TrEMBL record:
It comes from Microbispora triticiradicis. It comes from the Bacteria. Keywords: Metal-binding, Signal. Residues 1-18 form the signal peptide. Pfam families: SBP_bac_11. Belongs to the bacterial solute-binding protein ModA family. InterPro entries: ModA, ModA/WtpA. The keyword Metal-binding applies. The keyword Metal-binding applies. This is Molybdate ABC transporter substrate-binding protein.
Amino acid sequence: MLKRLSLAAVLASVSCLAACGSSTGPAATATPGEGGSLTVFAAASLTGTFTELGRRFESAHAGTKVTFNFGSSATLAQQITQGAPADVFAAASPATMKTVTDAGPTASAPAVFARNTLQIAVPAGNPAKVESLKDLTDPKVKVALCAEQVPCGAAAVKALDAAGLKVTPVTLEQDVKATLTKVELGEVDAALVYRTDVIASAGKVTGIDFPEAAQAVNDYPIAALGTAPASDLAKGFVDLVLSRRGRDVLTKAGFQAP
């Protein structure tokens, strides 16, 4: 009888330790092989490439779900500093990444993974006959630009300053995708957007190179955030972006290697 009671007591203690340990101990951090949820905030110009990399990451890590928030880097940085839950931030400029790092430490030092340059995007057929950056100064040519506070807008300002030109846009958009859409819909005659977005348009617009773009190249940094709920998954995704496989996807889309 005593032996049976003792055995029952031991089993009860083990059961309690297992149950109590799982409920009161520190939450386990998912590793890249265990599945889980990963939230990535990324510049709008990364929509195509990061969606592809997200699929590859999910395929390589069974049970993992990658959720993206694409938009203006400046807006995303503001959301992160205000407490939006994010594991990884990929920005279209070091300046917008600095907004985040100044607000708190990142789990890993920001690393530049790609570079991007501007092109003049015009609708199919180029109805306004735009051939150079100077043509955008013609008041008859309707131009769309990104707002100056977002990376594509800051790059446009640099390029125009380098050319000594002033352009009066008919609209200022909050990210490069919105700017490109104005061209695709024929609402403007031209816009300054990234080369990668022209490629992603799949023929809806035509890209025109101009020499001053070399003065306004944007570096793209990425970092796992210090407050990342899924820290191991965040590191794994950053490693994928920085890897040869990640670079191949980015290069195919028109990005330059850093």
